[in-house]
């Protein structure tokens, strides 16, 4: 029996006009960005309509303990106000996509719609990556990218922040004057990030001088820190927690700052960050090490001349249509970089210098071995 069958050359090809994009993690820092002091990433936009290449964030350190009593005169016994600052420079950051109208007509999907989505995703990721790069920056002013830093840059940062940098599970892992040797003391057996190391790094933050101020929940007397961890470190943290601890941490958080997969322990909300950098082979026996960032108030500054916005461009009699995303901003790990280097009293009763210290952040390093 003869059957009539469709001819391949005459069979129309049908495409779904829906499209998918490569997965990326939405900026995990965005919920902690704001204009008030009670934010880990403080935004300043008050120079948006003014000329200038940057904006200065100013800090005042606490006065020394103790008071003048009785008939002791105040004159001649005044304290010196510790006034410091850090300047953040902004620059233009941009990306664009150009599409010819012929390609827009021939394509199976809506290329213009895809362009808008891709540029929005790029802008969100760009902020995330810039904050991650700023978090790892070293040097005496905390402004040298870690990947470009010399041993001297890393050691200068290491030396200026003895109360703000933790290597593994023991404070004794720190080698005076040598960042690389300190990393080498982190082992795969005893250098993992666990609930105990989270408690320890929180104590380091509370004992640091000048003080690192915790974040506060408005309306209730509650303070907390936030932390950002590599997936390998986050895995080790979860493995160290009991089911009951995980359940309690998930039920107790303010949902405005807590999302699925996050963990809380001892007043620290820990977020997993997909793109956290690895320091390859820096640990003991050549293991990889990953940083962990514990943030209080004003850990970063975000100087915004203008936030990301889209612009359209038409060319060649309207045949070519372009869409661009343009922003003018800069981000930096805030540090005590401008001011007179007076000393402040530390928790042991000694004196510690101020210049070069991270403002609102403790950096931890932990073993990051693969699965």
Characterization of the model:
With 371 residues, this protein is of the alpha/beta class. The chain has one domain. Helix content is 22%, strand content 27%. The protein contains seven helices and 16 strands. It has helices spanning 101-106, 111-135, 151-160, 179-184, 195-207, 231-240, 243-252; strands spanning 33-34, 41-44, 54-60, 83-89, 91-100, 165-167, 215-216, 223-229, 263-265, 268-272, 289-295, 300-315, 320-333, 343-345, 351-353, 361-367. The strands form four sheets. Strands 6, 7, 8, 9, 10, 11 and 16 form a seven-stranded mixed beta sheet that branches. A five-stranded mixed beta sheet has the order 1-2-12-13-5. A two-stranded antiparallel sheet has the order 3-4. Mean pLDDT is 87; it is low at 19-24 and 254-258.
Layout of secondary structure:
Elements: E1 33-34, E2 41-44, E3 54-60, E4 83-89, E5 91-100, H1 101-106, H2 111-135, H3 151-160, E6 165-167, H4 179-184, H5 195-207, E7 215-216, E8 223-229, H6 231-240, H7 243-252, E9 263-265, E10 268-272, E11 289-295, E12 300-315, E13 320-333, E14 343-345, E15 351-353, E16 361-367
Parallel strand pairs: 1-2, 2-12, 6-16, 8-10
Antiparallel strand pairs: 3-4, 5-13, 7-8, 8-11, 9-10, 11-16, 12-13, 14-15
């Amino acid at each position: 029996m003869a059957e009539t069958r469709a001819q391949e050359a005459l069979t129309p090809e049908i495409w779904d006009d829906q499209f998918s994009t490569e997965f990326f993690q939405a900026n995990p820092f965005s919920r902690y960005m704001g204009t008030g002091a009670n934010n880990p990433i403080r935004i300043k936009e008050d120079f948006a309509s003014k000329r200038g290449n940057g904006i200065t964030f100013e800090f005042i350190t606490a006065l020394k303990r103790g008071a003048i009593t009785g008939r002791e005169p105040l004159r001649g016994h005044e304290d010196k106000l510790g006034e410091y600052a850090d300047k953040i420079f902004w620059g233009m950051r941009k990306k664009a996509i150009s599409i010819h109208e012929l390609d827009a007509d021939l394509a199976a999907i809506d290329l213009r719609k895809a362009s808008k989505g891709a540029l929005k995703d790029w802008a969100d990721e760009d902020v995330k990556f810039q904050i991650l790069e700023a978090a790892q920056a070293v040097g005496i002013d905390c402004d040298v990218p870690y990947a470009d830093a010399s041993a001297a840059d890393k050691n200068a940062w290491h030396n200026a922040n003895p109360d703000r940098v933790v290597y593994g599970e023991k404070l004794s892992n720190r080698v005076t004057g040598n960042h690389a040797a300190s990393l080498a003391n982190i082992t795969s057996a005893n250098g993992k990030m666990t609930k105990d190391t989270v408690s320890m790094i929180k104590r380091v933050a509370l004992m640091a001088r000048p003080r690192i101020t915790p974040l506060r929940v408005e309306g209730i007397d509650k303070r907390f820190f936030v932390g950002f961890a590599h997936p390998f470190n986050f895995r080790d943290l979860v493995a160290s927690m009991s089911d009951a601890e995980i359940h309690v941490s998930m039920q107790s958080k303010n949902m405005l700052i807590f999302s699925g997969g996050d963990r809380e322990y001892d007043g620290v909300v820990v977020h997993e960050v997909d793109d956290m950098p690895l320091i390859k082979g820096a640990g003991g026996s050549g293991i990889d090490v990953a940083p962990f960032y514990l943030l209080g108030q004003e850990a970063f500054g975000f100087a915004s001349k203008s936030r990301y916005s889209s612009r359209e461009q038409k060319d060649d009699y309207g045949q070519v249509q372009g869409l661009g995303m343009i922003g003018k901003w800069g981000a930096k790990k805030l540090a005590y970089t401008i001011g007179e280097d007076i000393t402040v009293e530390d928790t042991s009763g000694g004196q510690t210098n101020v210049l070069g210290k991270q403002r609102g952040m403790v950096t931890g390093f932990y073993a990051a071995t693969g699965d």
